[in-house]
């Protein structure tokens, strides 16, 4: 035990090499004793004028405080996120400080263009949005030529990039350039078309990325839209091109200098067309495999067809080398050689499109897919019709497309619902310009089948493209009507149906209504043309069937303003003996409705009525026809009905006194031309219907009419046969009363009128020859005996009229003057009269004296 104690003390004296320290869990370990303290303590050194914030004071900065220079430098950063943020910062800075863009636009574009071929998709898209929403709109008022030229080298470089995404995005950038600076395509057309050809040949990848292909094809459509489609556009396009060269010559020294530069474009388009066709055919197996036409595939196929269509238009119209096809009317122009198009490209286009036309003829697809196929088929048809301008197609080929047009117009190719009908009509508008010329050149069978369709679209003037189609359609209708003439009445009837519908659908004061109004000048030849006063050339209207004439007359109502040339032409048709009475009255009815609707001016409407009544040829001219056969051959009853209808219309034209003032002068002018008795009577009735008591006639008109009507009355009375006691005498008296009545009514409204007329009659007793105011038809009043007898008959008929009899009582002096002249004539030894003639004068004197004695005396004026 002692040893053990000693041993334990010895052990306690020994040293410990590694002392074990117990640590609690979760406590921080203390630093080692030999650790070096690296903490450095310092005080801030404040130096005046060295702050970064103070350096940027007054400068435009982004939300992160970066200047434009700093942001442009960061666009070249190796990190794509930094590049993207720098572009967003530039956008924010320009939106806040718009003047920065105008001051530094060239420096900005010089830096931004480097990102067109950026490997990062987000960076490229951010740059596109920056250019689209900020840079281009902010520079639109400046000269964009040099500005655009700075981008083009980088765009072309991106179009040849190894990455497909970069290449497709480059076309999207160029599309943006064309939107804001359209001349850029004509400046770089050769290179652009070459790059499109290259990218579209890579079909192994673009079918998997249809969205990007759609963007590229949309850009191609926009570019081809800028190609001229007629001869005048060729010249103006190159004038603009040359104007652009004066600005861009420092950047693009090798631009075409004259229209011959289109040779290069034609060559490139010639190479591009087969590529587009192959590209279109690549989609067909995919669509058939899925039995569904998705939206992206449809868009791509539509853009391809639209590109082909625009190229065909350029070949056919823009180069000025169109040949006589279905409807060629191109002005001759010495442009590029088109042989290579006609011999190589055109067969490829037609044959490969016909392989699949019409697309999906089955009826087991959805309504949406059916509509998409219908649109594609319409565009293919339009391509064919444009090509037909260049070269007339074979009959079997033409029949394929004619069948589609027929089915499309009749609605067999789309839904029969109202929504489907509206959809079909909207997309059929592009075919409208071709239909009038098609029906004039195809066979009789096809012409009838197309014209019998009732699917002609309605009008929507809000769309300029639709307006252009309807303008072409409307302008062609009159020419088609004239060309058809009266030899093809069934076709003319359908065309008139179409014209009527166009007039009904055209909104008032719209552009379509203006075009519809303008065709009335082209319709003159359809109705009637008058080269000289009596040389009338009637058009097809007169010989058409009644139902076609009815359609044509109804079309007149829908002219918002019927001008006098067309009214004159229609008036001449009304004067034609071949026009049925029913149609004559129908024309008056429609024109009067048009007047009440405000489509005809009052002066023109009155002129139409006066022309109708003053020039209507009544037959036979002898007014006292008694034979039944003669009455049946006469049109006098029709003319009397026309006079009544016209008089009724005059009462509906407005204030009677105002209309009378317009009518009075015109009628007096017409009477000075000495028309036949029936026409004079009709015009007098026109005046009377608007006259009042006392008369509205001016004193000058009363003096003129008193001289004129005295001869008129004598002519009417001279034709009355002598009373033979037969029943026909009463017929003659009734006839005579019809012609006398207007004059008698005028006498009741003006006592002065009657007295002046009696004075003129008294002077005519002793005058030789006919009255200078008498119409040309006077034949029986040239001798004094017959003239005296006619005057006595007039006075006897006046005496029988109760109202006139009262007025005659105040005209005894004028009647006594007539009696005195009769006695003077009878006693005259200078006149070579037989005893019988003198006896007749005495008999007339006695008759007149007899009725004079029965006139009531006029009470003296107190």
From TrEMBL:
It comes from the Eukaryota. Residues 1-13 have a biased composition (Basic residues). InterPro entries: ARM-like, ARM-type_fold, Ipi1_N, TPR_TEX10. The keyword Nucleus applies. Residues 146-208 form the Pre-rRNA-processing protein Ipi1 N-terminal domain. It is found in: Nucleus, Nucleolus; Nucleus, Nucleoplasm. Residues 471-826 form the TEX10-like TPR repeats domain. One of its GO terms (cellular component) is nucleus. Keywords: Nucleus. Its main location: nucleus. Belongs to the IPI1/TEX10 family. This is Pre-rRNA-processing protein Ipi1 N-terminal domain-containing protein. It comes from Vitis rotundifolia.
